[in-house]
Design a protein that fits this description.
alpha/beta; Rossmann fold
Length: 240
């Protein structure tokens, strides 16, 4: 897909991977409307020339408010990048069930609801694309982030089913599977992390190449190990 001139709706676009996707798409000539929850970060993106909308996608009301704010504007490319990470480890006491609910909604239910709302207008475009950002943890979970892993695995399954449902239509359905990326969400992790600029570059390359998946960085190796031995891949990831 040639992204030049395309209208993009990017959730979670004011920081991290989303911010770099927005910047790189803008350089390529796309018209990017991005969402976020932090007003200061949104203002910073506006100063770079982006159109922004404040949106909290951790509830149905938040998703519906975003759709209402869009009005009837066209959407050629929808990138479901917004997400939440919460610790959920019963070895450290009982986790907060409300935090788990918010994570599950933001990471799984919100993309499903947003796609359902926007699909009619995307079907009206000559060519369109949906990118759902999941995680390498959607393939094999780690131990401490069980709810986050479950939400991303659910979105991975949904994306694969949606791709099959839309086969034959001019709507490309792409799953982006990042590794550990250097963002605010991973600030407390003392490990090797991919720069968000490179992660964004690889996701956009998959979009431009009409590829069904963007297996980013070390996720390529995880996919290879999983194809040989799912049990080995799960065993390795449980150590993190």
């Amino acid at each position: 897909m040639d992204v030049n001139g395309k209208s993009v709706l990017l959730t979670g676009g004011s920081a991290g991977i989303g911010r770099e996707i927005a910047r790189q798409l803008k350089v390529k000539g796309a018209k990017v409307l991005l969402t976020g929850r932090d007003t200061a970060r949104l203002a910073a993106m506006e100063s770079e020339g982006f159109e922004t909308l404040a949106a909290d996608l951790s509830s149905a009301a938040g998703v519906d408010a975003l759709v209402a704010a869009l009005g009837d504007r066209p959407v050629d490319i929808l990138i479901n990048n917004a997400g939440l990470g919460v610790p959920h480890d019963v070895r450290n006491g009982l986790p907060d069930p409300d935090a788990a609910d918010g994570c599950l909604y933001a990471n799984l239910s919100a993309p499903v609801r947003l796609i359902t709302a926007l699909l009619p207008r995307m079907r009206a475009r000559p060519e369109a694309a949906i990118i759902n950002v999941t995680s390498g943890l959607a393939i094999a979970p780690n131990t401490a982030s069980s709810v986050y892993c479950a939400s991303k695995a659910g979105l991975r399954s949904y994306t694969m089913a949606l791709r099959a449902q839309l086969s034959g239509e001019p709507i490309h359905v792409i799953e982006a599977l990042p590794p550990v990326v250097d963002t605010q969400m991973t600030a407390d992790r003392d490990m090797s992390k991919m720069p968000p600029q490179e992660c964004a570059r690889q996701i956009i390359a998959a979009l431009e190449g009409n590829r069904p998946e963007a297996n980013v960085g070390m996720v390529k190796l995880l996919r290879a190990v999983y194809s040989i031995s799912p049990a080995l891949a799960r065993s390795v990831m449980r150590r993190f």
